[in-house]
Amino acid sequence: MSLLTGAVVLLAMACVANLLLLVAVLRRLREHQERLDAVRPIGDTDETELAPGQQIGGFTATTTSGDEVDQQSAVAGTTYVGFFSPTCPPCHEQLPLFLERLPQDARTLAVVLDDGDSPQERAEMVTRLKARTPVVIARPGDEIVQAFGVSAYPAMFVLDGDGVVQAGGHTVASLPRLQAV
C-alpha cells in the first residue's frame, strides 16, 4: 500500500511541476508577444512603409558619431537607407548583403532599432555598420522610423536627391540597384 501511496505522491508532484512549467512558458510567451507588438503593432502590414514615388517625412536624428541628420541632409543625392533590428534574424541575414553590395561612393544611412533587448547584439550590429555608413540608433516610434513608415525589419530604401523613394523592400534583392550582378 505504501508503494501505491508513494506513486500517487510522485505523480502529483510531477503534475504540479508540469503546471508550474506551463505557467512560466505562458508568461514568457506573453513577454515575447509584447516585444513583437512594440516592433510591429498588430494589424500593421508592409503597406504602411513608403512605396516608390512617396516622399519621406520630416525627421531629425543624431548619429552614433554625434552628427545631426535630417531629411534634407540625409538625401543630398541618391541615398541608400537601411533599418535593422538586432533581435531580427532576417536582419542578420540581410546586413552583410546590404553592406557588401552598396556602391563604394554611395551616400548611405543605417538605422538600428533599440527595443531595449540585446544590447550586445545591437552594439555588434552598430560596429559593423559604422565601418561603412553613419548609424542612427532609434527606438520604435522615433521620428526617423515614422518618417519612413517602418513597421517591419529589415527595411531598405533607395532615395533620390529630393527624398522620394525610388525603391524599397525587406531584402537586398528587392532593391534593383543592389541586386547581385
Number of domains: 2
Q: How many helices does DSSP assign?
A: 5
CATH class descriptor name of the largest domain: Alpha Beta
User: In whole angstroms, how far apart are the ends?
Assistant: 78 Å
Report the order of strands and helices: HEEHEHEHEHEE
Tell me the radius of gyration.
22 Å
- What's the β-strand tally? 7
Q: Sheet bearing the most strands, described?
A: 5 strands, mixed
* Poorly predicted sequence stretches spanning 5 or more consecutive residues: 41-48
Return the CATH architecture of the largest domain.
3-Layer(aba) Sandwich
Beta-strand percentage? Answer: 15-25%
Structure description:
- This protein has 181 residues and is α/β, with parallel strands linked by helices.
- It has two domains: 1-39; 47-178, Glutaredoxin.
- Helices cover 40% and strands 18% of the residues.
- It contains five helices and seven strands.
- Strands 5-4-3-6-7 form a five-stranded mixed sheet, covered by helices on one side. A two-stranded antiparallel sheet has the order 1-2.
- The longest helix has 38 residues, at 2-39.
- It is elongated.
- The chain starts with a helix and ends in a 12-residue tail after the last strand.
- Residues 41-48 have low confidence and may be disordered.
Brief characterization of the structure:
The chain has helices at 2-39, 71-74, 89-101, 119-130, 143-148; strands at residues 60-62, 68-70, 79-84, 107-113, 135-138, 155-159, 165-169.
Notable characteristics:
five-stranded mixed beta sheet; two-stranded antiparallel sheet; 5 helices; alpha/beta
